[in-house]
Protein: NAD(+) diphosphatase
Amino acid sequence: MIQDIEPHCYHNEYQNRKAKAGDIALCYRDRETLILEGEQLAFPTLAQLEDSLEDIYERAVYLFAIDGQYYYMVPETQKEPEGMRWVRLSYFRTARPMDQAFAAVTGHQLYDWYRHRRFCGGCGAPMIHSQKERMVHCPQCGLVEYPKICPAVIVGIVNGDKILLSKYAGREYKKYALIAGFAEIGESIEDTVRREVGEEVGLKVKNLRFYKSQPWSFTDTLLFGFFCQVDGDDTITMDDQELSVAQWVSREEVPDDPEGISLTREMMTVFKEKGIAFT
Structure:
């Protein structure tokens, strides 16, 4: 999956560190990222953007480090510097090396949070960046904000040698997926599984089995993957506002996963190759 970048080592602890010329600059504009031209994914250093961004070292915001290389968020440049280009966030689903794709989408998650926390949601005053941790606070009313992470479930519903595959309605992503949805206030993650399955395909499930989790920075989400069995009637009643397709698919018909970045597709592959035994 996209966060599995071993043997590279990702350090997300906050550092109050002044940016330097050789540090990596992650420059975003909405859902686009500035990269270097070339066959292999790479980002500019702060030194390479000095002429395009005034006061770049003072305005750079520390993000994280990978293998001792420091990454900073820098303001959007109004130019497209020579030897660089803008790419959509979806580009990083297939871009390699994986550690750099992971850096891009994780940095974008923080960029999105910072740009939507410039002003206090309580009183409207400008927010201030903490120098001790990754947090912003209001000097007027004291409101404190930490990065937003939304818990959600991915559900592999098993029916003998078949699994329920779906496609989203009205989404850019058109490939097969599993049932998914966000947790609601006051709800356990297991109850989220049952509710989302009921709402999207009208089924009941049993024997919930946690598989693994994944940070999914494309949507600010922490995903919890579950396999479960259909309980009783397997007739699908699809919510066509959420889904365009929902069907039972046999193991041999489950599509392959050429990207290898998502929990959804890994779960589909696990079922395809090994099946799921419930005891």
Observations:
- Residues 39 and 96 are 9 Å apart (CA to CA).
- The chain has four helices and 15 strands.
- The mean pLDDT is 95.
- The first strand starts at residue 10 and ends at 11.
